[in-house]
Amino acid sequence: MCAEDFGFPETWQGEVATRTCWNGEEQERACADLGGTLVADIYDAFDDVPKMRTPLPAKHVTFEPDSRLRAILGREVCKVNSLHHQGLMEAHRAPSLMTTAYGVVDGLVEALESPHHRFVVALQCHPERANELPEQFQRLFAALVYQAANPKS
Prior knowledge:
This protein has four helices and six strands. By secondary structure, it is α+β, with helices and mostly antiparallel strands. Strands 1-6-5-4-2-3 form a six-stranded mixed β-sheet.
């Protein structure tokens, strides 16, 4: 993701951001800017991806052991909402980002983090839709606010 897509100037001043699902044009540009590629329609591209577009927490996601998200959420696996037809597989990820969550069944990338910035997290799900996700996702917003308010942390 490029800085503009996070709402930051190109210099990444502050280096603190979180990003949830964004529209296809922004997502495609962000992927390309960092050397990745967006799969425009995962259902057309991959036969084994189950069609699951629901606001309900129905998709199991696993978080990488050393990821910020796993530390923040305190969970290895949880259910998230799934409202997308675009996405990434690991082979499409921008090399400057690290994948920190995957769909358990389909292997799609569900979260990315930047190891080069203080706090940059991107999620495919919608944690702002609090009634659809485990309450632990509210910790993500608390962590974002904390990081933004404490630039030396």
